[in-house]
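Re-running the complex after MR caught last week's input typo. The corrected sequence lines follow. Everything else is unchanged.
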Amino acid sequence: MKYFYTHQCGFGLILLLIFFSTTTAKAQNTYKLSGQVTDTTGQAIPGVHIQRINTTNGATTDFDGNYNIEVTGNDRLSFTYLGYQAQTIAVNNRKLINVQLSPSTEALDEVVINAGYYRVKDRERTGSIEKVTSEDIELQPVTNPIEALQGRMAGVEVVQSTGVPGAAPTIRIRGQSSLRTNFDDNGNLPLYIIDGMPINSSPIDSQIQLFEGAGVDPLNTLDLTNIESIEVLKDADATAIYGSRGANGVVLITTKSGQKNQGIKVSTKLYTGMSRVDNFLNLLNTQQYLKIRKQAFENDGVEPNAYNAFDLVLWDENRYTDWQKELFGKTAELRSASFNISNANETTSYIIGASYQKQGTVFPGDFSYEKKTFNLNLNHQSKDKKFKLNLSANYGLDDNDLFNSSTFVSTALSLAPNAPRLYNDDGSLNWEDSTWSNPLATLQNEGKLSTNNLISNLGLTYRLTPSLSLKSSFGYTHLTSEENIQTPIESYDPDMWDRVTNRSQYSDIRRNSWIVEPQIHYRKTWGQHHFNTIVGATFQENKNTSLTISGRGYIDRNLIGNLEAADQVSIIKDRDLTYKYSAIFARLAYDWKEKYYLNLTGRRDGSSRFGPDKRFANFGAIGAAWIFTEENFFDKHLNWLSFGKIRGSYGTTGNDQIGDYRYLDAYEATPGPDGLYPTQLTNNDFSWETNKKLEAALELSFLNNRIHTEIAWYRNRSSNQLVGYPLPAITGFSKVEANLPATVENKGWELGLSAKVFQKQSFQWNTSLNMTIPSSKLVAFPDIEETAYANTYRVGEALSLDILYEFEGVDPDTGYYTVKDVNEDGSYDYDDRLITKNLGRKFFGGVYNKLNYKNFSLSFLFEFVKQNGRKTSSLPPGRLGNNLKSVTEYGSSSPEDLQAPSQSINAFLAFNRYAYNSDFSITDASFIRLKTLSLGYEISNDFTKNIGLSQFKLFVHAQNLLTITDYEGLDPQSPGSKALPSLQSLTGGLQLTF
Amino acid sequence: MNTFKYTFLLFILAISSSCEDFVEVDLPDHKVTRETVFNNDKIARSAMTGIYNQLFNTSFANGGNHSVTFLAGISSDNFKLTTNNEDMREFNQNNITALNNYNLELWAGAYNVIYMTNSLLEGLENSESISDENRKSLEGEAKFVRAFTYFYLTNLYNEVPLILGTDYRINATASQNKQADIIEKIIDDLLDALDLLDENYLENNRARPNKAAANALLAKVYLYVEDWEKAENYSDKLISQASLYELLGHEEVFLANSREAIWQISPIGWGSTLTHTREGSIFIYDPTMNTPVILSKDFMEIWETSPDLRYDKWIGEYTQEGVSSYYSYKYKIAFDFSGGEIEEYSMVMRLAEQYLIRAEARAQQNKLQGAIADLDMIKQRAGLPLLSVTQPSISQQALLKEILLERRKELFAEWGHRWFDLQRFDQASILNDKPNTVWQPEHRWFPIPENEILKNPKLNQNDAY
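Corrected-run output:
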């Protein structure tokens, strides 16, 4: 959830007053005074205005809080900065004055926002940037920082497609802008930047099917407790400086660093707890199930026998197993420990830490997710403050110890409740004379994935003059991911053993990248005109390699995975890809009287993914803001309005997220040996997808900043889509890579509201709300009928679309569901699918509350989503396999709603092929979820002080404690999915700081 | 300020000069530029090997469920479907809609092969560094494969665009050519191939066509265009090469590089440890594997009076609950993941067919004795009484009917022979006897895929669609 920070507004006017009330100072013996302005934590404050009282002369502090000013020995100086208490200091002939400003009590929340290449005060920003800070996310027992953003930010949609720990969540910032959504060709990934280092945000491909194809997120190797803040850049003003990579927004993650002059500090956080699935489907018990099965045979006029009804003839009719509880009903343990030491003096600060996290799974057997991380952050500043160094390194080891099965969870939903027992008396798996497939067999298909990830960045800054600095950052990342999947013959029915063999698949994925970004920063003030400039360049190279080897014919199960022991080894995939990227970028920020703001950003990008003549393109944006409460009128007449700002931005960003080398006219090796073949038609003329973003927003604060609101309207139009130009197959292929004039529009409203409900010494209550009303539309797509997207998207409709038959209820003759044959041609195909349903979110958001009472703190976050979704699919009632309890109502209350039990093929087609693909299957899937609930108690007494504890906090935290929904499915978050739902967890722990 | 300007200028200069070059990337290891491919004999040869490998993978030729073998096969009266697959059902009921995906796959696969051959031929043309010897055989092979592919395209779809280059900007709007022109180009290509190809199989690999393959295909082309004399001549030339070809025992015919094979496609194209043919996996009936077809009742009836060796060796039986299903068992291996030696190749052309071609060509020219002798070669191997003994004075009409039946028995489940034969012998009306069929004479041509017409409005749909 976003924080809506309040602002101190009187200061602008005070500044004005100071300016206009000054008189001309007489020239006396002047000399140069210098010094630094810091806040109470020792952090430098740039932009502090220093005024010689009763003169028009003034100065402003630079990035490092340093200032120089010509003074006379008996001058008095005023130091003013928004959000801080102004100070007046007499010079008294001193040459050096260091000043520490305290935050003004009514503007504690004055916040500096990281916009990537620069930082900006929240009050002054012209772009749309959301921020969450460590204290709101660090307690969540999730593996991935992105997951922690669920429900916290307007315009940011995060969906966890499976509750299997480690699986990558999907994040969409202001909707889906690219039509390409395949795993290996996804144009919708935001740019991730960790401490200045961009990392490849595409999930790491994993063949472990439990991940449901989502892959593993490269951010998993970060320690959540080591994250200082996460900023998400959304509009053109904020993202255009990232040029071709900013189309889908930018996620900036800043890790913790030592704070100046704090001295040595040791802190640790420990928690332990458990997690489980809290929502199961309401399925038939054996008695209800058998009744429907028998009814089906009766309806079909078929006699159950040993071939068509194992469950009725061969299996025990008195057995009952709750397969959901059996297969994913376990309680998983989780524990986490993190530890760090930091130290800082005048010139140097560092933080060094490590963490460990382990989560079990809810599946039977001993599976787990384990993470170890190490982090280092070092800051150094030379004594003369001219030279600055920042080094950050994060290293993480991630071990997913799972099994390989795509149907483990869905099997639990479809197994007959009287299906046989899992084990024989001797402990071996029971196959019940091959009448079923024992679900536990796949647990033997071990799937292990280990990822090592180093993300490091070094920043060097040298200040040439007070207003001019040179800066350069050097980043390096190295990720390796190794996966081993084993398939022993024991995972098959013993009847099959002579037809199968022990096999394994080994994958090795490496991602290496480096980046160098030299920059010049320049800051200048002429009277009331303030300029802030950055010019920089980027050079980046990524190398991605992947190697997949399969081995088979291992003699013994124990040898599986050791390729040396395999009878046959074959290379499935061997790829070595290089991506190079370079750019020059610039930002010019200007403001007049700290009232009117203008921000120009631009970038010229070159990407190796395009043909030689198409590699470069320009992107840019303009942003402007007007703090209208700075005008006299408001102060006089509308003083209940403490802050008001109108801002807007327009600009273009691009997208080069397509595969490498697609422009090359080249042959590739055929799967068969010694052969080469052309794999595509070649066009070296394609280029960037472009995303034009427009935004307007209004920010208001009331009642002395107690209440802050922000309302934003945005419209992003993404065109030049790289979806492949459709060609007739007579050309040899069905498409050629090309920019299509297809346009996707995402627009919407974002609303933020925060309020300090109570602000007493012993009791504080802050509440905030964010809400997004998005809408997406495919504005244009020429000749869509001829492309592979013909049945996925419709021009004029939303992107998250289902194209469906029209449901016509139950046929009174057959008792089966029917759908409308629109063109009356006797068959059902896409010509009959005329109903379209938007499965995108209608609105979503979160409500966050944070209460402090004395030593207690309580916070909780509700996530809410209004959407339609697919019903959970099942087999038609009467077929072999369990079903929702609602089917028992057949024949009683409203028979027209339920298909007659039958196991005929026509019943199956009517139910699964037609009705499930009609509007019948669409239902409301809205939900409200208590995403997080934290209760903390801070112990602070003489004892803790005596042993040197500066903080001692106990906490309990609950995740997904409660979900309110009418949706009948495992997880309304991803309706229709039969993946493991997001887990509910309860953890407790303590936090100590010495 | 000056410092700033100066630094700034220097900076911009330094950057802009290095930016442009920086984003150059080297060719990745898994790609070879077209230029390089045709720069060198060995790599150019790989491009041809690539085509053979891909013939096993492309839907049109692979023997799988989008192939000519399967789709023309189920369009005829030899098979019964065991699946509800809508696309397959349309073929089986001779009611293919222009939107049928399998039809599009078949068509697209064929044109993908055409593209590969055109790409190779263009590459050769533009290259000066390929040796004459290599150039000859590569050109011959590519033209052979192209002619082969067009032969099936035009016999399935009638008029199709004759694409002979690789420029998609031109090809995307190509119109259909008259069938006569297509046939002429096929014959041209084959005559060139006949000229250019080697006499012998290189390393006895029958997956790489030799002169005789061009010869055999010419015989077939002339048979289809009813140039009986030429059909007889070319098949005659083929049959006379006793050093290369002979009729084998039924169990040996479909083995890799068998001496009956004129051209085969090798499962080496799988590129994995799979070694079986797709025909093996699609025809050998196994209800647990969802095999899509069994042999039709109508087809099984032809064996009732005289079950011969082919009935014994090439037809399998599967009994469940007392009901027997019969399936094509020419290929014996349904699935092999062992990675061992490849035992069976997918047969494209074989000697027995050439005997049947010559028999038919001779019969049509009223050279009945010669025709009977040819037909008897096949009957003899099948263990059937010889026509020269049972009906030495059979009439021309009766003999042709006999040839048609023999072709059905000999060539079932191979490359849609039955489908084409029914059209050629003007016997397609018997398709009306199939259950649920909606056969009409215009259905002899498959529809041009609707998607193709949408993308290229210059294409005309066949009648009846």
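None of the earlier attempt is carried over here. The radius of gyration of chain A is 31 Å. Chain A touches chain B through 73 residues (CB under 8 Å).
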